[in-house]
Structures are given as C-alpha cells and as structure tokens.
Design goal:
mainly beta; Immunoglobulin-like; 2 domains; three-stranded antiparallel sheet
C-alpha cells in the first residue's frame, strides 16, 4: 500500500491523504494513523472502502507522519503499516534567538509545493530589502535562512512574501 499526502488548498491546517486500493478481496476498510514523530502515531481514523481521507485541525508549522493499514473481517484485523508519508503544515516565519549581539539571526519557515518565497527585512517599515528568495518548492519542507547582517542594525524586522 502506498500513501500520498497533499495540501488541501481550502484550509492550510488540513491534509488530504490517498492510497491505492488493496488487492485483497477480503479488505473491509482502511485505518490511517498519524503523529508528530516518525513511527509514533498518536491519532487514527477508520475509513470504509474509500481511498482518501482529509485529516483536519493540524497545527501550523509542524511535521506530521502518516501510515495506513488495511482492515479485514468483522473483527477489524489489520495489515502491516504502509510506507510512511510526511507533511509539513504551512506555518509562520520564526526566528532563533541570537546568542550575542554579533551573531547572525536565523529565520525558519515551512514551505508548500508550487510556491516560492521571499524573505525581506526593514528597519523602518517603508523600505524593504530582499534577503533571499527560494526556488519553487517541490515538497513540504522547512527552509532555514541566516541574516548575517542583522548585527549591523539596532533593530531589524522581517516579513515573508509568498509567491
């Protein structure tokens, strides 16, 4: 069984999962497991003989891991887990605290496929300077950017532009 994750564009904190039909004629449904650590699933949802489900209310900026099983018979016996799929829910731009006034600022943010991002900085909220642009994201992932010039400014503010 293969499990696929994709962003549900209607809501950033939802993910739609789909999989291939089990070739076993005795299959009575599927069970999808999910959690925030690989192989450690804290939630699950039982679905009938459908091959997709939307998992809602996921926390922004968190990586979730998913696996599915095939259910058999009235007692709900389960197959082994499918291969695992992961998904980073869209979230906010975060900064890591500088360890000293001369150390660089670390900026981190999750990306979604099909978009590119631009990190900009300002000292006055009128003139913005582009620090870095990403390429078009091909998978859910976290991007980490270092502002090596941060120590040159008394105050510096950042924004993330989604394209």
């Amino acid at each position: 069984m293969s499990l696929f994750a994709g962003l549900n564009p209607a809501a950033a904190a939802n993910v739609t999962l789909s999989w291939n039909v089990s070739p076993d004629a005795g299959a009575t449904g599927y069970k999808v497991y999910y959690g925030t650590a690989s192989g450690n699933y804290t939630g699950n949802v039982v679905v009938g003989l459908v091959t997709s489900v939307t998992i809602s209310n996921l926390s922004p900026g968190i990586t979730y891991y998913f696996a599915a099983t095939t259910l058999y018979g009235a007692s709900g016996e389960e197959s082994a887990y499918s291969s695992e799929a992961s998904f980073v829910t869209p979230g906010c731009l975060t900064m890591s605290r500088r360890t000293s006034c001369s150390s660089p600022t670390q900026l981190n943010f999750p990306v979604v496929p099909g978009h590119w991002y631009e990190v900009q900085a300002t000292t006055n909220f009128q003139t913005w300077t582009t620090l870095q642009q990403t390429g078009i994201a091909t998978s859910n992932n976290w991007v980490h950017i270092t502002d090596t010039q941060a120590a040159s400014f008394a105050a510096r503010y950042y924004r993330l532009v989604l394209h």
